Amino acid sequence: MCNLISSAEIKYSPSSSTGRSIGIERNPRRPTFLGRRDFFEAIDTVAEPIEVNAGQNRCRLHARLSMPSKYLNFFLFLCCSSYLGPVIALADDANCDEFAPVAGILKSCEVCHGEGGASTQQQYPILAGQEFYYLYVQLKDFKSGLRADPIMGPLSSALDKESMQLIAKYFSAQEWRDTEYMNQEQATQTAKSVITAGQCVACHLGAFHGNSRVPRLAGQHPEYLAKTMLDFKSKARQNSPAKGSLLASFADQELVDVAEYLSSL
Amino acid sequence: MSSKFEKNLFLNLLIATSMALFGVSSAHSQEVEGGTLYGDMLTVTQDMLDHAAGDSNNFLHTNGNYKQTRYYPGRQINVGNVDRLKRAWTFETEIVESLETTPIVVNGTMYITTSFNHVYALNAETGKQIWHFKHKMGPITTYCCGPNNRGVFPYGDRLYMGTLDAKLVALDAKTGALEWEVQIADPELGYSETMAPTAVDGKILIGTNGGEYGIRGFVKAYDANSGKLLWTFNTTPEKSVGVWATKDATGRDMLRDIKAEKAALKKLGDPYKTLGGGVWQNMAIDRDSGTVYFVVGNPSPDLYGAIRPGDNLYTNSLVAVDLDTGDYKCHFQYIAHDVWDLDAVSPPILTTVSDKRGNSVKGVLHGGKTGYVYVHRADDCSLIRFSEPMVSQENRWVLPTTTGARMLPGANGGVEWSPMAIDPNLNLAYAINLHQPMTYHVEETPYPGGKLWLGGAFKVIPSEQQWGNITAVDYNTGRIKWKVKTQQPMIGGILATGGGLVFTGEGNGWFRAYDSASGELMWQYKASAGVNAPPASFNVGGSQYIVVGAGGNVQLDFKRGNQILAFKLDR
């Protein structure tokens, strides 16, 4: 297994995250979508625009066999897959760590966002299990200032495209940890009416688990959700203009109720 | 097994054999009622596709045939016996999400698709799975209205499908193995595919979604064997300004500020590069003239028009191009400079219509999001007539405001992407409608580079009642012949049959059959999820089946499910 960081608690194990292989597992909480495995294969073998680089690690061994980078990535994927017992051993031996180039950065992120991105603090959004492309775009937008934030702006200013993709890939591969929020019945009623009016599920999908460039909202911290929706409304957050227009048409309290409701899903 | 059944079987064998010998073209004018023996007759020839309108064994096109009539000729299930229609089998897919697939049936094998581009081959008689293909989705997908897919097109020994990550894939129809895939356009910029492709004369035709993201829309033709791009028709030409039309197709003033638009044009130039103009649904093909008819969706951004001065050609239009070259032939624009997203999505239908003088001419029908059925001449795209409105028109064309202006139809339209059907014997077109008032909000928004670009917001009004209709329109007069009200707005599609029936489903799970001449309710079945997919029909083993997906709908948030339901007569 490709261990990322020294901490034994932090597990990077996309191959063992069977719980997220929806469609296949028929998890009622996430009724649709590709298993994580499909997703990684897709990143590694299909998608042209997002080529995740192997970077500096001992798997250069394979690179020297002069495989095209596409196949190299696929090979790396295999390295990190527990499907192949013997290969894992080999990978461990070779310290095949795809995320080594950003290991230091990831540690710094976890100070706020928690181990593996599973933040336990209200003001720091959960990144663990968030959609890959959404995370990547947020980092790009923090850096460009489209999403202005006094903390994340400076933190992302030094990141290059490859690092952002690796970071996004790392966090998206983690399990989403249930926060077990409860909410008031009153909030639920308001929220449902807002969700109907805004046709929110058309993009975030029925269970609010998002997909690709649309983020998961279900189970996110309510304080953060409320803040970010109010930021959209006030145009403090500008990196999704359609969201800004829509949320501007609701009262602040309605958005707070929606945040509570979404966090309880 | 009764001896009668054996006799039938023998007959079927005979028919199957003769069909194999004569290339199935025997179905041309008269209907073949007897079933076909399925086996390895999976190759779909051009001849079969050309004669699909008279072929009651198969359902080869998403909309029935190249004219897209959705009129299935078989009449084993008919007004006299439909009360004996019973569920024959149910198939459950792996994906519980919006189902918009039209089941395709080729000599006893059925092909269906689900959200996120899974494809299944099933035994059409039993519903048993033959193979299952999962498309390897790339990490970037951009789509506005659900991860839907509306089906495959069978051609030769392959199946063709468009994907959410904007690819065209070709599968081996026998095994489901991927043969090749090509990238149609860049999903990062807002392109995605949900429509079924259309194959003809060695070409695979496909449009694109993305009118909500500032794409430049197109119809492309690919070589069916190699996947090589043959031609592209851009739906937003370099000169998209047009004639500064102030009235829509029904003659209503759209309250355009032409002076301001002209000033903006000077400043900004022609907006064609990010003008949208998706093509969401299949094209009708006139095989005699080699013409491809399709409708083009809304301009980008949907609500904020000031940034895109001009008529925004060919958004919200019926367009005809040459099948061989993709060259423009004619167009008709329903709404110039649309700021309501009341665009053109429901697939056009080719049929004979009466012109203004009562002469029979080749015509094109389209059910607009405005809630009217439009009737055109096929030769020059000009409008012959439009129908009575199928849904209430309230406050149309009030301009969107910052705080929101209420209008009916809402942005999901009076008819959504749902295909219509016709009964050519009755001269009736059947459309399914939505009554869903919305408020339209506008906000100045520059191009956000591939992100959702509405230039404002559409909002449903939760306190107002919503409902739907099924409407039969006489396309030779424009009169509404009958109309049935449904509890919820309608989305999915409709099928007309030679048995004098129309079949359509609802968001609450009801799947119903009506007398196509009168609208009388003839039969119903309650599914466990919304029935929001276009039905199909076919005949195998001597029995006619009706088949439909029950997976709900994400756009209207109708209960999701994962079932394909097949029905036949209980004998």
The number of strands of chain B is 36
Secondary structure class of chain A reads: mainly alpha
CA(first)-CA(last) distance of chain A: 32 Å
CA gyration radius of chain A, whole angstroms: 19 Å
Specify the oligomeric state.
Answer: heterodimer
Q: Please give the domain count of chain A.
A: 3
- The radius of gyration over CA of chain B amounts to 22 Å
Give the low-pLDDT segments of chain A: 1-96
Major sheet size, sense and barrel closure of chain A: none
Largest interface by Cβ-Cβ < 8 Å: A-B, 43 and 47 residues
- Our count of helices of chain A gives 13
User: How many beta-strand segments of chain A?
Assistant: 0
Low-pLDDT sequence parts of chain B: 1-35
Could you give a short account of the major beta sheet of chain B? 5 strands, mixed
- Broad shape of chain A: globular
The chain-level mean pLDDT of chain B equals 93
State the helicity of chain B in percent bands.
under 10%
What letter string, H or E per element, gives the SSE order of chain A?
Answer: HHHHHHHHHHHHH
Estimate the mean pLDDT confidence of chain A. 72
The percent range for strand residues of chain B is: 25-35%
Can you list the strand order of the major beta sheet of chain B?
1-30-31-32-33
What does it look like?
The complex is a heterodimer of chains A (265) and B (571). Helices cover 48% and strands 0% of the residues of chain A. In chain A, helix 1 (36-45) packs antiparallel against helix 3 (69-79) and helix 11 (222-234) packs antiparallel against helix 13. Chain A folds into three domains: 2-98, no CATH class; 100-176, Cytochrome Bc1 Complex, Chain D, domain 2 (Orthogonal Bundle); 178-265, Orthogonal Bundle (Cytochrome Bc1 Complex, Chain D, domain 2), CATH 1.10.760. Chain A is mainly alpha-helical. With 571 residues, chain B is mainly β. Chain B has three helices and 36 strands. A five-stranded mixed beta sheet of chain B has the order 1-30-31-32-33, with no helix packed on it. In chain B, strands 2-36-35-34 form a four-stranded antiparallel beta sheet, with no helix packed on it. A four-stranded antiparallel beta sheet of chain B has the order 3-4-5-6, with no helix packed on it. In chain B, strand 28 and strand 29 (480-486) form a beta hairpin. The longest helix of chain B is centred in the first third of the chain and has 20 residues, at 3-22. The radius of gyration of chain B is 22 Å and the shape is globular. The A-B interface holds A 23-24, 26, 31-34, 38-39, 41-43, 45-50, 132-133, 193, 196-199, 201-203, 205-206, 211-213, 239-246, 248-249 and B 94-97, 115-116, 118, 134, 136-142, 144-147, 165, 183, 186, 188, 403-404, 439, 441, 443, 445-446, 448, 451-462, 554-555, 557, 560.
